[in-house]
User: Which sequence fits this backbone?
């Protein structure tokens, strides 16, 4: 096999398709009992898609299995290089930041949460212009609040502590 | 009504300050975003979309079209000055643009890029005006089976031509179709993967999916590796483009414009292949073919004409058939739907004034681009100086506000982040995101037309082969798959 990662991806898709077919559709798709034609049932389309995922996953594995060594190209070179120092840690922190934003926004409000997130990203990537980052971190969320709240009529979440006009 | 009557009726919608301002701001935003390596025209259009909610439909769409046009041209500036295409469509421009910059002729290369872009853009817009109405009137005779086969063909070609691996492109499209099934069933109104959550009853928010797939992965990629990769900016040089040089390249520009129009009107092909084909045709037919790749101005003209010739033409299938040919037109279809407009043949009857106002706006945008582009060329040094941490943090905050503004719902921000992680996974594994998004948009249409056809025939599949139109689309789908399999086998023999 020439691209173990792509073959593994094929396996993942076979597993995912099987999960949708055997678990997700029976559990999460409701079909009325009076459906006379199977092609009109709400389960029909997801079932076809699941089989397509399984089939394409198998095809992906099959093509990789028969691919000769000389034919290796750069199509999966994106992950071949070594991870940059601290890359996984930063990625985990970035993901945690996104999760936190969703849960903190109703408490702090979107403006203050956005300011904190801007600062956190700047810290995460070690911004070489901390003063500029700080200014933009404060001005940008406020400017967007003014536009969306007052010009576009969007009720931007205010949070439980400090309310903006 | 004739084309002239329609244009006359549409003129008042465009001939006002609001529309001109929308086009102007759109082009400025697009050129700046396109010129910043790491940003793209797609990301710029996606981030501008939420700002159109408060605008009139025509003004909002003109703003987006301005960003689109500006973004495609803007990508050529860093391609020439720092050998880094701002957008994939500008990759061919690097071949001769950067060698010209090395010779101290960057100003000349950029001027040629601008004039070739505007000339080809104008041709593309005229093609749109001439052919979209004709195609729409033809499509009025389409029923559900015809639309089903048309969408299936479009999805096949988009999936097959995106990315380097055909199977990964198809998987991406199929995953997009799966995501589109989330929500209440179209016919029976029963639950499908929505887990009884009211936030999921209407399906996933298109803008959250779009921004999540196309903006968040770029931010995560930068967080993963924040090392600067900026090249040195070449100076513009003292030599300017002469009319004689433009005249010498005119044939290549017209040829490139035609190539762009033809490839742009086929869903899924996009601007980059048009630019490369136009470039190679110019080289084949040029008297100076040995200079190509070493700083030949005709090469810059041909590649820019090719990629800009696509701009107007991609709107032909979008407006006439309701089928987006690439990600940017997928965003525009989303914008039209948000403003209560359904692209397709019926739009030429129900909203002909808006359609023709868009056509006029596109022509005006070509003229505006000429002026704005000239200024942007001179200001690029400052644009390139924007620090990436500040830029990407700004993009992150724009994403959050923009997605929230669609439904005033924090849940959508969560969807965007989930899609962002999926998009980053796709980026790392080489799965192209474009088929995913387009399948997500076309999925409900595909299923709806399929089920309507089945209702019409009482469940018989023969209805999908009922007319010569369906035969043509089935044949085109089969030919596309065969051609893609052949291409795959040539690249990677079994």
Assistant:
């Amino acid at each position: 096999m020439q691209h173990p990662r792509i073959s593994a991806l094929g396996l993942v898709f076979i597993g995912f398709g099987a999960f949708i077919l055997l678990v997700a559709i029976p559990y999460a798709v409701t079909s009325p009992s009076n459906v006379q034609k199977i092609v009109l049932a709400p389960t029909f389309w997801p079932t076809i898609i699941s089989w397509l995922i399984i089939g394409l996953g198998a095809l992906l594995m099959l093509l990789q299995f028969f691919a000769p060594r000389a034919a290796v190209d750069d199509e999966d070179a994106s992950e071949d290089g070594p991870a940059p120092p601290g890359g996984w840690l930063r990625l985990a922190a970035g993901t945690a930041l996104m999760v936190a934003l969703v849960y903190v926004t109703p408490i702090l409000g979107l403006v203050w949460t956005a300011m904190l997130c801007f600062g956190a990203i700047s810290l995460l990537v070690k911004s070489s212009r901390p003063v500029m980052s700080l200014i933009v971190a404060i001005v940008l969320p406020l400017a967007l609040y003014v536009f969306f709240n007052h010009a576009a009529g969007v009720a931007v979440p205010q949070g439980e502590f400090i309310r903006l006009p | 009504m004739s084309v002239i009557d329609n244009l006359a009726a549409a003129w008042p919608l465009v001939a006002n300050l609001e529309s001109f301002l929308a086009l102007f701001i759109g082009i400025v935003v697009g050129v700046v975003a396109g010129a910043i390596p790491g940003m793209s025209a797609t990301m710029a259009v996606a981030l501008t979309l939420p700002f159109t909610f408060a605008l009139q439909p025509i003004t909002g769409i003109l703003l987006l079209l301005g960003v689109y046009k500006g973004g495609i041209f803007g990508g050529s500036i860093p391609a020439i000055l720092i050998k880094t295409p701002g957008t994939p469509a500008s990759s061919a421009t690097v071949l001769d643009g950067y060698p010209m910059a090395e010779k101290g002729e960057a100003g000349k290369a950029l001027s040629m890029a601008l004039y070739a872009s505007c000339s080809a853009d104008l041709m593309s817009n005229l093609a749109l005006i001439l052919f979209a109405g004709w195609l729409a009137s033809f499509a009025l005779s389409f029923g559900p089976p015809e639309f089903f086969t048309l969408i299936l063909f479009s999805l096949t070609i988009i999936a097959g031509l995106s990315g380097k691996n055909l199977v990964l492109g198809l998987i991406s499209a199929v995953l997009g179709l799966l995501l589109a099934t989330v929500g209440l069933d179209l016919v029976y109104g029963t639950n499908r993967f929505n887990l009884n959550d009211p936030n999921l009853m209407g399906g996933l928010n298109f803008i959250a999916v779009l921004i999540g797939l196309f903006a968040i992965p770029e931010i995560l990629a930068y967080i993963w590796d924040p090392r600067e990769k900026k090249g040195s900016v070449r100076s513009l040089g003292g030599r300017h483009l002469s009319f004689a040089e433009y005249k010498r390249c005119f044939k290549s520009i017209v040829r490139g414009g035609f190539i762009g129009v033809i490839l742009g009107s086929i869903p899924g092909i996009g601007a980059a292949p048009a630019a490369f084909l136009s470039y190679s045709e110019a080289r084949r037919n040029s008297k100076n073919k040995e200079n190509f790749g070493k700083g030949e101005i005709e090469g810059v003209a041909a590649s820019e004409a090719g990629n800009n010739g696509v701009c107007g033409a991609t709107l032909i299938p979008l407006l006439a058939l309701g089928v987006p040919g690439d990600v940017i037109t997928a965003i525009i279809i989303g914008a039209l739907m948000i403003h209560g407009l359904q692209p397709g043949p019926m739009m030429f009857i129900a909203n002909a004034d808006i359609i023709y106002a868009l056509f006029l706006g596109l022509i005006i945008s070509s003229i505006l681009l000429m002026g704005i582009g000239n200024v942007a060329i001179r200001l690029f040094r400052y644009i390139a100086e924007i620090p990436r941490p500040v830029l990407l943090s700004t993009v992150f905050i724009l994403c959050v506000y923009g997605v929230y503004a669609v439904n005033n719902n924090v849940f959508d921000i969560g969807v965007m982040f989930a899609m962002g992680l999926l998009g980053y996974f796709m980026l790392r594994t080489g799965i192209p995101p474009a088929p995913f998004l387009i399948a997500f948009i076309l999925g409900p249409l595909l299923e709806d037309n399929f089920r309507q056809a089945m209702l019409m025939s009482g469940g018989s599949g023969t209805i999908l082969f009922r007319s010569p139109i369906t035969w043509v689309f089935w044949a085109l789908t089969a030919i596309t798959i065969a051609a893609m399999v052949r291409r795959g086998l040539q690249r990677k023999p079994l």
User: Anything to note?
Assistant: Chain B is about 75% helix and 0% strand. Chain B touches chain A through 70 residues (CB under 8 Å).
